[in-house]
Amino acid sequence: MQIEEFSSGDSWVHKLDPRVKIVVTLVFSVVVALNSHLEVVAISLILPFVLIICARLNFGKVMLRLAIVNGFILFLWLFLPFTTPGETIYSMGPLTIQREGLYQALLITLKSNSIILMVIALLSTSRIFTLVHAMSHLWVPDKLVHLFFFCFRYIHVIHEEYHRLVNAMKMRGFKPRTNMHTYRAYSYLVGMLLIRSFNRSKRVLHAMKCRGFKRKFYILHHYEMKRFDYALAGSSLAFSILLMVAR
Amino acid sequence: MHISEGVLSAPVLGGGAALTFAGLAIGLRKMDYEKLPEVAVLSSAFFIASLIHVPIGPSAAHLILNGICGALLGWMAFPAIFVGLTLQAVLFEFGGLTSLGVNTFNMAFPAVAMGYFCRYFIRSPSLPVRVVSEFITGAGAILLSGLLVAACLVLALGESMDSAAKLVILAHIPIMIIEGLITVFVIEFILKVQPEMLPGTSGVSR
Question: Searching chain B, which residue's CA lies closest to the CA of residue A74?
């Protein structure tokens, strides 16, 4: 499974302290999500763009990712410009385009893309395990951190299991169609996947107990904030605050 | 259906975050360390299962399975779904960070509600009773999720979203039927193969 595709790289963006990345992304996302000024949201796009360029990410891949996640936004474009009450700026037959609706649709599009780009620039450039480790330093409850750790660890294993089951189905000539047989076959696939996961989790628990698991993961490598991390955290947070107060 | 970043208003985002926070608190308290690997590996399995696309006529829909998730995990569906959605947000940018609270609640609350409904009937010796209640579990969880998504859109964007909200609910109807069917088959399958996975079937309370 091709995931974490942006996480391999050695730019300074990749090497930033993951705690800084999480905090900056969260603050920036909330500030942009709650802003209602088109100009301010448009300016906010600068920060993620600069970071993506500095991270030397493959521009085509980033655009492809954006195109995929804009499906929901496209759905809103089908409605907002036509149904929001307000000043009519263009009409064709029964359809009228309203200024307010257009403004709102544009605002949502910019907000959404600005935040998504920020998530790609900062979070997708770290490995999940690194982010999970950073979470444990950011007052996320231990149990939740462990849940993230195990869940991500086993996604790969279960994905292999899934492929084994799907290959077995294909070898027996399974072709998905819209009929009861297909739904039953998929259900048994899901059921088997759940049962194998359940049994695997029991083995994991026993293995952990055998090794004396004491409800704690011992972290050997600790993060250290460097001067550069402070500088980037400071400037990004200042930028976010500027966006918040800008009118 | 995930609601993307930047769509919802502050009260909806805040309300969703608060409700999810409460759900997570209950779920994490119910999940002791003995149970943690099970919840985690099942979350991975639901994550993978959500990548499966089943054909519906000319189109296809991906599985959601929040009804089954609620039946298996009860309140622990909250942390399980939260982890899954966070990973989707960071890995694929589906949904998002600020809407994580709302999206988790929209999927996990129906899971818990229908999960509790399901466990009343799951031990019934009568096959028709079980089949009907399992169908309601799967279909009801999707219906509730669809209604919550529609309500969020209307609350945040006003009445101009009425027609969009109706379309969201309409689009959920075929998915409801398929998830209902799949829930019946999956739970009956688990009852045959590994009944101790389900609550109440081995006297283990969850």
Answer: B4
